[in-house]
Write a structure and sequence with these properties.
Elements (H helix, E strand, L loop, with lengths): L10 H8 L22 E5 L4 E5 L1 H6 L10 E3 L5 E2 L7 H7 L5 E7 L4 E8 L2 E5 L5 H8 L1 H4 L6 E6 L7 E6 H14 L6 H19 L18
Antiparallel strand pairs: 1-2, 1-3, 4-9, 5-6, 5-8, 6-7, 8-9
Length: about 230
């Protein structure tokens, strides 16, 4: 789905490409053909909007915000928990997201912020206006620091209180989408899906517990890696 008047890929096209499965053990870096394991980094091809599996040297090569003329961009591993009041209950309800989880990212391809929420059929885009985004950027410097294309604002809203908000790598959002597709059963998802969600956010909180140097480049996690 491309925006009116545009011949480029739309946000759903981008999502389909992000959902490319990770390679199995013994497969290769998609940039230099070096063998890589299951735990590896990703690089985004900004022209094709493809998410590429990469060995550590290739990942580091494209870390400074888009090397090779800006064609490739490494997905940073920064994970930050934002203050509770970053996104208020009122903000969340104004978005009218039908589930309790959503993620937001800025696409340099479309020039817009997009909101997606995961479900058993994959990720669905919310087409409602995102008027609150500029207010969030102005109020919270960390929101303003989210790197286009490769980082996202991930939000989890419980039944009461302000939602929990995190800055996460974009590939983490699609891991969450994959878990829901894998485990969701019936109308409410079932216990296995809810446990997978809880485990995923426990991992996010654990990574976010490391100290963060405010004002540091988004691709520079504390102590070099999380």
């Amino acid at each position: 789905m491309s925006p009116p008047g545009s011949s480029g890929p739309g946000p759903l096209d981008i999502l389909e490409r992000f959902r490319k499965p990770r390679p199995r053990p013994g497969e290769q870096c998609e940039m230099c053909a070096t063998e890589i394991g299951t735990e590896h980094s990703h690089v985004v091809n900004l022209e094709s909007r493809g998410l590429m599996c990469a060995c550590r040297p290739c990942y580091l090569l494209f870390l400074p915000g888009g090397a090779a003329g800006g064609r490739y961009k490494s997905v940073p591993d920064r994970c930050v928990e934002l203050p509770e009041a970053t996104l208020t209950r009122g903000d969340w309800e104004s978005l009218q997201v039908p589930v309790g989880i959503a993620f937001f990212f800025f696409s340099s391809t479309t020039g817009e912020v997009h909101c997606f929420y995961p479900g058993p059929a994959g990720a669905t885009e919310s087409l409602l206006p995102l008027d609150m985004w500029e207010r969030l950027r102005a109020a919270e410097p960390l929101v303003a620091s989210i790197e286009a294309d490769v980082e996202a604002l991930l939000v989890r809203a419980e039944r009461e209180g302000d939602p929990a908000s995190y800055i996460v790598p974009i590939d983490a959002c699609y891991e969450l989408v994959g878990y829901l597709r894998m485990y969701w059963k019936g109308f409410d998802g079932g216990g296995e899906a809810h446990q997978a969600i809880d485990d995923f956010f426990a991992g996010v909180v654990a990574k976010a517990s490391s100290p963060v140097r405010h004002g540091a480049p988004p691709w520079a996690p504390p102590n070099g890696s999380l």
